Fold:
Amino acid sequence: MVEIWLPYNNTEVVAKVPNENLLEIINGKEVRGVDNPSEVISNSIDNPVSGLKLEESVKSGNKIAIVIDDETRPLPSHIIIPCLINKLNHLGIEDDNITIIVGSGMHLSSLDKIRVLIGEEYSKRFNIVIHDCNSNDLVNIGKTSFGTEVYINKYFANADIRILTGDIALHYFAGYGGGRKSVLPAITGIKTIQQNHKFLLDPKSRTGNLDGNIVHKDMEEAANLANVNFVVNVVLNPQKKVIQSFSGDLTQTFYQGVKLVDKLYKVPVDEKASIVIVSPGGHPYDVDLYQAYKGVDSVLNIVKDNGIIILVAECSQGYGNEVFYEWMVKYKTITNLERALKRKFVLGGHKAYYLMKALKKVKIILVSAIPDYYTNSVFKLNTAKSVNSALNAALRMKGKKSKILVVPYAASILPILRR
Structure:
């Protein structure tokens, strides 16, 4: 018996897999976090990948806007923000001229959560703006070649120097997070986000792919319209520790990070399994079902048709999105759901589309804190109280000799089947 520990919120649970059934435990390359992340990030700020250094563009008296992620992302803003502030203060920028914008996209956040993200001191020192995608006070900065009208946060649009922070990681339809994603969807209006996200129905809009990915290209054009001056992006290991930092020009910084992510987290797999046990990677990836689904998406290509995915995700905040819930109730077939999305794209509806599409291929057993009523009747998932009872049920359904793959950090890696 092999004991495999899986992240579950801020703790771990153990899966006990028979030796004869286990094909592989799939992890990216093991890279420990750097000993002094502040030093690494500060060094990258001083030595950008390309583009102007901050001292070449920042002037005393400039109004500065800095975008950070909200609490649903693992970005270590509590490390990045002090590094940036120290640099800006050194260049003569006073605290009153610095605004920190929480790029929450369509998520809801609060100042209490932001205090945790950046620390009490910094949350008191600076003007903190939590972006509201439904605000009527956004600025239209133009239109992309794909027809997306780009409305962005007024504090960002009106700043003299515009800075993005983020982490570059795999993303299930933008290809990768980080870079341009800190503009769209992070600080854009609801209509801009909806227009962009409707392109996820295109088959090239998928995890780890930028080639022909319309979602990505549209995001990139939107970020270029926003005239971003400087970017600080990090790459994290699955334990959310900083591995490397890239700063400077928006585009070149992003692609340097993508190269490293590909090298570390695209993992070749020899064969598909009948059963895949997966954790998105614990908090914040499993905060709710809406977020945790990304773990399912990462492993769909390594599970056999009619196979079983055991999703281990606490989902302490339940299903996480009302539209997701409503569309799962309203639409009974993937055909009708896809037709509705094409007619009028609604965020949350897209997650229902992804889940229904996955359920056409596999059964999903969810190990979580969500009441069975929702998981069974609304989201069409089987449930189990523990990962091992889920595994026993899966072996009964697929046969005692079924082969098993285990992916403990699925939000961070992409298993790729060898041809």
User: Anything to note?
Assistant: The radius of gyration is 21 Å. The mean pLDDT is 94.
